[in-house]
Amino acid sequence: MTTSRITGEPVLKWDDGFFCRDLPSKPQTGIGKVLVTGATGYVGGRLVPELLARGYHVRVMVRAASPEYKERWADAEIVVADALRPEELATALDGVHTAYYLIHSLLLGQKIFESTDFCAAANFRRAAEEGDVKRIIYLGALGDVQAVLSPHLRSRKKVARELSRGSVPTTILRAAIIIGSGSASYEIVEHLVKNILVFPTPRWAQTRCQPIGIRDVVKYLVGALEEPATSGRSFDIGGADVLTYEEILRVFTDVLGLKRLFVRSPISNVRFLAYLASLITPVPAPVTLSLFEGRADEVICLDNEIRRILPFKPLTYREAVVRAVAREREDRVHTRWSDSYPPAHELDLRLADLPKLPRYRSSHSLLTEKSAASLFRSLCSIGGKEGWFQSNWMWRVRGAFDRVFFGVGTSRGRRSLSELRVGDVIDFWRVEARARDRRLLLRAEMKMPGAAWLQFSIRPEEGVNRLSVEAFYEPRGVFGHAYWYAFLPFHHFIFRDLIEQIARRS
Ligand SMILES: NC(=O)c1ccc[n+]([C@@H]2O[C@H](COP(=O)([O-])OP(=O)(O)OC[C@H]3O[C@@H](n4cnc5c(N)ncnc54)[C@H](OP(=O)(O)O)[C@@H]3O)[C@@H](O)[C@H]2O)c1
Questions:
Q1: Is the N or C terminus of the chain more exposed, i.e. has fewer CB atoms within 10 Å?
Q2: In this predicted structure, what is the pLDDT of residue 346?
Q3: In the listed set 286, 317, 339, which residue is the last one of a domain according to the structure?
Q4: What is the rounded CA–CA span in Å between residue 252 and residue 56?
Q5: Domain annotation covers residue 4
Q6: Distance, CA 46 to ligand 1 centroid (Å)?
Q7: Percent of the chain with pLDDT over 90
Q8: Position 5 in a domain
Q9: Lowest mean pLDDT among 101-105, 112-116, 417-421
Q10: Which residue's CA is minimally distant from atom 17 of ligand 1?
Q11: What is the CATH number of the domain that holds 98?
């Protein structure tokens, strides 16, 4: 068996690498249906396979249907519902025993995320009461309940209060930052320590925090379901260490074997530093800002009651980082913060569902003797660390503009170097459809006056294969039309190069 170069542990395939193996509680599969909301998100995406592996009847709630979900959660029931639409929640909660509430709208940005989160929680509480749900389990955030908190922590607290105000017994698990491959906090720290040689540390870098590994979060979530003693109560969950934010950076630096200098910084403007962090890391500004705003709030466990009910040894911060780095290097990142949709995304706007094809289209193709399988493999590796081949700089310039104007930019990268599933992000695109060895359809999520898609297709033609790329664009307003014509001259170089490189590298 292969062993990890980093942890020295056997490399397990995702299917056999479950987190809950040493959980002291026993599966309660007789309880009936368990609903997981936020299943497309970072935490929910890790929870679903664990519940399925323990034999639960899982219903997964998503906001947009996709054929790929049936493949991803073959043993689960899938229901489409938006927490902001109460009538859809009634169907989602029908016949459910326990519902996990893992919804949040941080990506919507400062102005509306708090009210949106509250509205979603209020709808959910009402629907759970009407649907006779027996339990709700919510993962919220740590933070002194008496203190004046940052908008993010305050919003999590309001959601907790709203959910537990109803008649359905609600378990609240409160966590600080979650460390695991693909988590936003992990990627922020990782990119900061990799890209900054001298760290200006403001005074708030001395605030204490108790990070927790994603595997321990999932264990507590599953354990809360299996231990009735957790019903209707609130628990603080944390990893084995309490560290300052500076120590969090230092330990990470040490794990990566890097040398970095830490110097006291007179600049402590949170908005400015969060914006800088969003430019350096793949994580967009609304998320970095929300996390940085909590800088002054100590987020440490005030009691360890949960450890008595679910006794297992949580990971230290260093162990969590080592595991996350290992998973990333082994290309085994199962879910990522970018899996949930950005604000401008119109969930229902799919190329296949449009009444007619978008107004503008430009296409390029070539004939190649390469097999369809190798062409598809090659095109599935575009973007991220691999880049966009020949015209990389043009994509970067476009991405940099996007980032400066608070868009998603090109630096979001991708979850896995080799694997692509529907919903995955590739820089500023998202996979909308995928047919093995035949087609890959990407939808643009960058800021632009319109909606754009990029479609790659492979078709057999007279004994060889035709590899094509087509750009589709539906303009919005007069700027939309101008935008298309401004970029049209570049299409020829970018797309021609792109398919030539895909064919060459396959
Ligand atoms: N990640 C952390 O470091 C961390 C730390 C402490 C606590 N937590 C808590 O853990 C929970 C889950 O966090 P996460 O990091 O997994 O979040 P995430 O990756 O951002 O996912 C959020 C999920 O919420 C869904 N969602 C958003 N609005 C919705 C709506 N109106 N109706 C239905 N679903 C909606 C999203 O669905 P779409 O895919 O459709 O957008 C997505 O699946 C949150 O309560 C958070 O406060 C997280």
A1: N
A2: 57
A3: 339
A4: 36
A5: no
A6: 12
A7: 52
A8: no
A9: 417-421
A10: 41
A11: 3.40.50.720
Q: Whose CA is nearest to atom 8 of ligand 1?
A: 140
Q: Note whether 322 and 424 are same-domain residues.
A: no
Same domain, 19 and 46: yes
Query: Are residues 164 and 276 located together in one domain of the fold?
Result: yes
Structure tokens at 293: 């705003």
pLDDT at residue 10 is higher than 50: no
Average pLDDT over residues 71-95: 94
Query: Best substitution site from 63, 115, 149 to test ligand 1's pocket, by max atoms within 8 Å of Cβ?
Result: 63
Domain end point (choices 339, 366, 389): 339
For residue 6, being part of any structural domain is answered with no
Alpha-carbon distances, residue 262 vs 193, 196, 343 (angstroms): 11, 10, 35
Residues 186 and 241 in one domain: yes
> Would residue 344 count as lying in a domain?
no
Number of domains in the chain: 2
CA distance 387 to 498: 10
Whether the CB of 40 sits within 6 Å of ligand 1: yes
Residues 330 and 368 occupy one common structural domain = no
Q: Which domain holds residue 170?
A: 14-339
Residue 41 in contact with ligand 1 by CB distance below 6 A: yes
In this structure, the answer to whether residues 463 and 500 fall within a common structural domain is yes
| 65-82 mean pLDDT | 88
Q: In sequence order, what DSSP letters do the residues of 105-165 get, joined into one string? A: -GGG-TTTHHHHHHHHHHHHHHHHHHTT--EEEEEEE-S-TTS---HHHHHHHHHHHHHHT
Is any ligand 1 atom within 6 A of the Cβ of residue 326?
Answer: no
Atom of ligand 1 nearest to the CA of 142: 6
Residues pairing with 443 in the sheet: 430, 453
Q: Judging by beta carbons within 10 Å of its beta carbon (0-12, 13-18, 19+), is residue 478 exposed, middle or buried?
A: exposed
- Residue whose Cα lies nearest atom 26 of ligand 1: it is 103
Distance 436 CA to ligand 1 centre (A): 29
Q: For residue range 319-369, what is the model confidence (pLDDT) as tens digits?
A: 999 999 998 888 888 888 887 765 555 555 778 878 888 999 999 999 999
Instruction: Give rounded-to-5 percent helix, strand, coil for the chain.
Output: 45, 20, 35
**Which residues are within 8 A (CB) of 435 and not within 5 positions of it... i.e. 6 or more apart?**
none
Pocket test for ligand 1, best of 35, 36, 42, 159 (most atoms within 8 A of CB): 42
Cβ of 175 closer than 6 Å to ligand 1, yes or no, is yes
> Is residue 155 domain-shared with residue 78, that is, in the same domain?
yes
| Interhelix angle 317-329/184-195, nearest 10 degrees | 80
- At 8 the pLDDT is 52
Distance CA 457, CA 437 (A): 8
Helix, strand, or coil here: 211?
Answer: coil
Query: Which residues, other chains included, contact 497 with Cβ-Cβ below 8 Å and sequence gap of 6+?
Result: 389, 390, 391
- Residue 146's pLDDT band, with cuts at 50, 70 and 90, is low
The top-scoring range by mean pLDDT among 87-96, 190-199, 400-409 is: 87-96
Is 359 in the same domain as 274?
A: no
Q: How far is the CA of 38 from the centre of ligand 1 (A)?
A: 5
